[in-house]
Amino acid sequence: MQDEKILLKLARLILPSGFIENFKITGITSGANDVEISLDEFDNLPEERLGHKVESKGFLDAVTVRDFPLRDKRVNFKVRRRKWYDCTTSEYFTNSYDAVYKGTRYSKEFAAFLKALPRDISPIGPFA
Question: pLDDT tier at 128 (50, 70, 90 boundaries)?
Fold first, then answer.
């Protein structure tokens, strides 16, 4: 139990805000230049669908989200969101999250950091 609390604290430091509440870590791989953290969405039904007959239809294809480097390695999150079918309204739906900067595949925090960098520096290391 204590180990789980420590791992949860570590995950909260590494994952962008909102990820730990909505996704579970399903795998971590580390290569020479990058770290990949795989995440699957929990069974979170939106409040407006509670009381409806809803069926899980698996996952959408994984989306890669870039985040802050760790130990000079690029960090990529492979995020899979659930796909649902609402039998009551006869429509498919997915949950949406406000974790990626609009028009990019960067976490909001990482995109804000990159935008604040001076434009005249050359891309180096894990920021390239």
Answer: low
